[in-house]
Amino acid sequence: MLKGKTALVTGSTSGIGLGIALSLARQGTNVILNGFGDAEGPKAEVAALGVRVGYHGADMSKPADIAAMVAYADAEFGGIDVLVNNAGIQHVAAVQDFPVEKWDAIIAINLSSAFHTTRLALPGMLKKGWGRIINIASAHGLVASAQKSAYVAAKHGLVGFTKSIALETATTAVTVNAICPGWVLTPLVQKQVDAIAEREKVDNDEAKRRLLAEKQPSLQFTTPDELGELAVFLCSDAAINVRGQAWAMDGGWTAV
Ligand code: NAD
Q1: Domain 6-183+222-251 is classified in which CATH homologous superfamily?
Q2: The model's pTM
Q3: pLDDT tens for residues 21-63?
Q4: In the chain, which residue ranges form alpha helices assigned H by DSSP?
C-alpha cells in the first residue's frame, strides 16, 4: 500500500533517518531526503531500490527553508504522503553551563521543525484522504537524563505535539505517532561513546558497553533497520487505529 506514495524524511543523510528512508523505499515509496553532508551516497542507496528519490537541503532550524522544501515536494512529487520528522541534534551540559544558542538550536531542530512540516504538509494529506506522520522522539521523550535538558524538553514536547495532532486528526485517515528509540549507534551517539572513552580512559568497545549498561537493559543497540520496519508498520492499514502513541523501541530502557 506504500507503493507509489511519497515520503519526506527529515535528517535522512545519516543514521536513523536514512534507515527509515531505505525501509520505506523497500516498500516502493518514493523518498525525499533532507539533511547536511554528503547527499549523493544516500540518494544512490535509495535509488538502487528502484524508487524515485529527491533531495532538499533545508536547514530544519529555518521555517522559510522548511516551507521551500514542502513546496519542492508539492511541485516535484505531488505532495507528501508520509512525513517522518527525524532531524535532530544533541548537546550535553549542565543547565547552568548550557550555551543559549545550543538550547535555541535544539528546540528549533528537534521540536519546532515538526510543527512547521506538519502545518504545511497536513492539508495535502487531508485533501488526499490518507497520510502518516511519524515523529522520531526518543526514550528521552518519556524519561529524563541529567545534562540533556534541551534535548529532553524538546523530545517531551514532540511527544505532546504528537498526541495533540493525533486528536485533531482522529476521525481522518491521517495518523500521527511518535517512535521513541533507545540507544542507536549513529554519529550522534558515537560522540557520546567517544566522550566516555576519553573521560574513563577505556577503548571504544568498553565505552559502548558502559553507555548501554547505564540505560538499556537489553545491552544491544537498536538499529536504524529495526526502526525503519516499525515506521513501515505504522504506515500499514493494520495500524490505522494506532494514534497519538509514543512507541518505545529501547531495549527495556523505559520499562524500569
Ligand atoms: P545523526 O546525527 O546520524 O543524523 C541526524 C540527521 O539530521 C543528519 O542527516 C543531519 O544532517 C540532520 N540534521 C542535523 N541538523 C539539521 C538541520 N538543522 N537541518 C536539516 N538536517 C539536519 O543522528 P541520529 O542518531 O540518526 O538521530 C536522528 C533522530 O533520532 C534525532 O531526532 C535523534 O534525536 C533521534 N534519536 C536518536 C537516538 C540515538 O541513539 N542515535 C536515540 C533516540 C532518538
Answers
A1: NAD(P)-binding Rossmann-like Domain (3.40.50.720)
A2: 0.98
A3: 999 999 999 999 999 999 999 999 999 999 999 999 999 999 9
A4: 15-26, 40-47, 63-77, 100-107, 113-128, 149-168, 187-200, 204-215, 224-235
